[in-house]
Amino acid sequence: MNRDYVWLVIVIILGGNTLVLLSSEDSSQPQNTSILSAYHGLDQLPLAASLLCGSNVAGDDGMPIVFSKQLQVDSVAPESFLVIRSNGESVVPNCATLHPADEPLEQRTVLLTGDFGTYGETPLRVEVTGPLLSFDGESLLGVSTEDITPLEDGPRVVLAERFAPDTNGLAGECPEGTTQVVQLTWQGGVTGPANAALGEDQRLGTLVLLEDGTTVNPLTLVDDDPDNHVLACLSEDSPAQWVVVHEGLFHDPGDIANPATHAEVVDGSPYYTHE
């Protein structure tokens, strides 16, 4: 599909607000593993977050780090990360975990907790400083990012992957009649407003541009646990090419809504299915 045509369609869908987004969101896939997103998403984690870490992290900041590849579960540890605060201080996280995004097709989002700063004090850098490994054994030592989304901003989609509905990890997730599934990876966990379940507003505000040039809404959106992955179930045979989401529909744990966001759909590769 002609890329100029795709961009024109997205501009029309979002009412002319997409040209800036296209310059700031790079959907190309790197050859080596990189950090797709570092999202300073919550200033005060609730006590329930301690269940994810196995230790008390209530009151910590929460910062999900999304990688371009899935990770080896056993290689994820707090001492493998360093966060540079806005004042230049280096902080080793109190916790680093793949929970809750630990299903077979997920396992690429590391939740870091610790004292990383507050509103107006966005961290300067996140770096891998220890033996973190991708699913295929690539060392991620030295991988870093200085592009950190501040607490004040809402979440964006950073990855969209197309899978067959019978792919391992998707059985029973989508309704009968589903022909393809697009897994949307957000910067952080998303719900409806005020922690409500995803519903019709979110479904109708999610548009999928297909290879044949048509634009459709998903049959349904599936999010059966509180993480940053949402499944868009489609009934069309033409492969999904782009996903566009209108602003103000998906809220992070701090109840901050998403800006208008989009991502090119790539073929999903369930490389690593540790369970």
Report on this model:
It contains four helices and 17 strands. The chain is mainly beta and 275 residues long. The protein has two domains: 3-28 and 154-267, Sandwich (Immunoglobulin-like); 35-149, Immunoglobulin-like (Sandwich), CATH 2.60.40.1220. The strands form three sheets. It has an eight-stranded mixed beta sheet with strand order 13-12-16-17-10-11-15-14. Strands 5-6-2-1-9 form a five-stranded mixed beta sheet, with no helix packed on it. Strands 4-3-7-8 form a four-stranded antiparallel beta sheet, with no helix packed on it. The chain is globular.
Descriptive tags:
single chain; 275 residues; mainly beta; Immunoglobulin-like; eight-stranded mixed sheet
Element-level helix/strand string: HHEHEEEEEEEEEEHEEEEEE
Mean pLDDT: 90
Task: Indicate the overall shape.
Answer: globular
Total domains, how many?
A: 2
In the sheet with the most strands, the strands line up as 13-12-16-17-10-11-15-14
> Can you give the helix content as a percent range?
under 10%
Distance between the termini: 37 Å
Instruction: Report strand %.
Output: 25-35%
Structural class: mainly beta
Q: Can you tell me the CATH architecture of the largest domain? A: Sandwich
Radius of gyration, taken over Cα atoms and rounded to an integer in Å: 18 Å
Low-confidence runs (pLDDT<50, min 5 residues)? 17-30
CATH class annotation of the largest domain: Mainly Beta
Largest sheet, strands/sense/barrel:
8 strands, mixed
Number of strands: 17
Q: What is the name of the CATH topology of the largest domain?
A: Immunoglobulin-like
Number of helices: 4
